[in-house]
Amino acid sequence: SIDELEGYSAPLTVDFLKANDKLVLDTQFFEESFKARLVASIENFDEQCDGLLMHSENFQALNLMQERYREQVKCIYIDPPYNTGSDGFAYKDSYQHSSWMSFLFDRVILSRGILSTKGMFFSSIDFVEETRLRQICDDIFSTDGFLAKIIWEKRFTRSNNAKLFSTLTENILAYRASTHVTLLREPRNEKADSTYSNPDNDPRGVWTSVSYVNPASKEARPNLTYPLTNPITGEEVNHPTNAWKYEKATYEKHVAENRLYWGQEGGHTYPRLKRFLSEMEGMVPVDLWKHEDTGTTDSASKLLEDEFGRKVFEFPKPPSLIKRVIGLANFGNTDGTFIDFFAGTAPTGHAVINLNREDDGKRRYILVEMGNYFDTVLKPRIAKVIYSKDWKNGKPIARDTGI
Ligand SMILES: C[S@@+](CC[C@H](N)C(=O)[O-])C[C@H]1O[C@@H](n2cnc3c(N)ncnc32)[C@H](O)[C@@H]1O
């Protein structure tokens, strides 16, 4: 009955349902014939479906996905059990390490089959199993596939309970599915954009600048050594020891395109090359992800508590961390399929929904989780975030914000 359903106090009226069309309907409460009619009424069901949640052991789920998703997945992110003793792998001796390794190997190698050749694979891991996970993944994606060990700053306060080190970081290993992945960029963020300004009112908009002086000497680079002219003072400018960064023909192009900045009233000794924000193509990714850009374990717990009104899971990942993973794996695109087969509290689904909401994207998520909290946390969480972007004490604070 309605009374037993958490969060619902009264039957919802038709008007309410019409006004809140992002409320998620759970068909488990309906008869089979209704479900069949509902599915039949949706054209191209498969294409329209933007999320798939599988309550399953992931080995079976990955087997099931082989045919349907062969080489179609843009990015896999996983956060496997870390084998730290609290997750069912009871003993940390060498035999247990090897059984953890074969557990992971069997699943990661299956997942490679559904990854696009332009796809990427990411796995969170702490220091206990990092080297072994690296071996497994190097085997599966080859050492060519390894791109980075990203250090994530998961907390920034010292734990005074620690007897030895207080661990503030964990890792995300990043691999490419093949050498077809040749260039990586990350979406720009506000912080990066805030370093741009427009002191000379350039019609191309805000810009930042880089030095024109080459670190190499004139002797080492004679082809990059020639006199410049400061256009404001009319003076000829030579560097006493160093070459310039560009050949003379490129310099002349920079002058013609007004790309050199000599300071207000030509006051700089050497010019700087302008780089316009409008011409920037994302940022080169780095392997140190600081808490202010990604969130922390604490901020992830707080978010989950806001959504449920109580504590429901230990050590979740923040959706903002996975959002960064997705932005990197899928730079410049707003579609693609993203899979997490150790889904836990569904931060990967959450991140995809948030991103689609921000840019009206068509990204899809597939989440696999075998734990019982699939029904009590994962599924209700996805339903909640589809309905409303923000929650407090388990209640939506923005209704119908769409996806
Ligand atoms: C470290 S947790 C993931 C936490 C998740 N990233 C989050 O932020 O909530 C690992 C999850 O994998 C699930 N899991 C472990 N072995 C599994 C298996 N063989 N198949 C499916 N899920 C599994 C566990 O139940 C657990 O929820």
Could you explain the architecture of this structure?
Helix content is 33%, strand content 19%. It has an 8-stranded mixed beta sheet with strand order 1-15-14-2-3-5-4-13, with helices on both faces. Strands 6-12-11 form a 3-stranded antiparallel beta sheet, with no helix packed on it. The chain is α/β, with parallel strands linked by helices and 403 residues long. It has helices spanning 14-19, 32-41, 45-48, 58-69, 94-112, 130-145, 190-193, 248-256, 291-294, 297-308, 319-329, 347-359, 373-387; strands at 51-55, 73-78, 115-125, 146-153, 169-176, 207-211, 213-217, 228-229, 236-237, 242-244, 260-261, 272-276, 288-289, 337-340, 364-369, 391-392, 395-396. Helix 4 runs parallel beside helix 5 (94-112). The chain is globular, with a radius of gyration of 26 Å. It binds S-adenosylmethionine. S-adenosylmethionine is lined by residues 57-58, 79, 81, 313, 316-317, 342, 344-345, 347, 368-371.
Features:
alpha/beta; 13 helices; binds S-adenosylmethionine; Rossmann fold; 403 residues; 33% helix
* End-to-end distance: 29 Å
- Which homologous superfamily in CATH is the superfamily of the largest domain? Vaccinia Virus protein VP39
What is the CATH topology assignment of the largest domain? Rossmann fold
**Rg, Å, rounded:** 26 Å
Number of helices: 13
Helical content (DSSP H or I, runs of 4+):
25-40%
Shape: globular
- Find the count of extended strands (DSSP E, 2+ residues): 17
Order of helices and strands: HHHEHEHEHEEHEEEEEHEEEHHHEHEHEE
How is the biggest beta sheet arranged?
Answer: 8 strands, mixed
β-strand amount? 15-25%
Low-confidence stretches: none
Query: Which ligands occur here?
Result: S-adenosylmethionine
Top-tier CATH class of the largest domain: Alpha Beta
Looking at the chains present, what oligomeric state does this protein adopt?
A: single chain
Structural domain tally: 2
